[in-house]
Amino acid sequence: MKHVLIAGLFTLATAASAAALAAPADKGQMYDRHMQRMASELQLTDQQQEQLREVHREQFEKMKALHEEREKKVEAILTEEQRGKWQELREQRREGMKRHMREHRGHKRGDNAADE
User: Fold this and answer.
1) Which intervals carry biased composition (Basic residues) (predicted)?
2) For the stretch 70-107, what's the b/e string if a residue is b when 16 or more beta carbons lie within 10 angstroms of its beta carbon?
3) What is the pLDDT of residue 115?
4) Cα torsion for 74, 76, 84, 23, to the nearest 10°?
């Protein structure tokens, strides 16, 4: 049971970490485009847009705090040797996600160019 818990926590932690680290460098631009689309399609007022941005900021901070709490709890469960191996596995996962995102963006750009 303990192994299942550790494996589950590891999977969750690596997926969240990898997704965050593999995010494109222009994620601020992506967020801005998303907000512009929402504002346009929903006809949001400036006040509503700011309120949504505040909700997003609050949720990001909560998610960040939960992630840090989870990391501490997982590290407390693992032995020193396991923590080292866990860090290695997380780094491998991160690199794989970065590679996947680079390839995905390349295909996406290629698809868009073919459509033009």
Assistant:
1) 96-108
2) eeeebeeebeeeeeeebeeebeebbeebeeebeeeeee
3) 44
4) 30
Query: Cα dist. 20→17, 51, 59, 113 in Å?
Result: 5, 24, 15, 27
Are residues 44 and 52 in contact, defined by beta-carbon separation less than 8 angstroms? yes
pLDDT over 70 (residue 108) = no
Distance (Å) of CA 110 to CA 27, 97, 107: 20, 20, 5
Residue with tokens 């073919």: 114
Q: Tell me: the pLDDT tens digits for 44-84?
A: 999 999 999 999 999 999 999 999 999 999 999 999 999 99
Angle formed at CA 114 by CA 110 and CA 116, multiple of 5 degrees:
120
Amino acid at 35: M
Tokens of 3: 């192994």
24-41 residue pLDDT tens:
556 778 888 988 999 999
